[in-house]
Amino acid sequence: MRLIISMVVLCFSTACTSDESLKKIQPLSQTKHDFVVQNCYESTKGDFSDSFQRYMDDKMVTINHLKQQANNDDYRDVLFALNHFSDHWDRLMGARNDACEQWAKCEYLVDSKRLDQQVCANRDIEFGIARIKLITFFNYIEQISLSNKTSKTRQ
Description:
There is one protein chain. By secondary structure, this protein is an all-alpha fold. Helix content is 86%, strand content 0%. It is built from four helices and no strands. Helix 1 (2-42) packs across helix 3, helix 2 packs antiparallel against helix 3 and helix 3 (72-111) runs antiparallel to helix 4.
């Protein structure tokens, strides 16, 4: 009987200790998660993604209006190009989000005095490059849009 009671007490104390340990770890993990979300997603809401989506929606409306005027091959080619632009944008955004998360996790550890700032230098560079790629692609898309508008006004 004593053996059973001691086993129950041992199991109960182990379970309680594990639960308390999890409670101590979870806030730190949650705080890091919140830091990443705040720095990578909340602060960038409505930036390029909304502008790009508006651009793509506008182009889809234009293409649908021109569908009757264009032959099927031209329509498919333009639709393919727009889908390719959209896919490329999604890949660039994914790379930007990954780089931002890595940078934010590193910065969180620097802020909590667990890492030296120099350790995060590569993450900062990778994040900067990912943002530059996004901006460059968006500018390229805008130039295509402007060149199309300019050629239409000349005609």
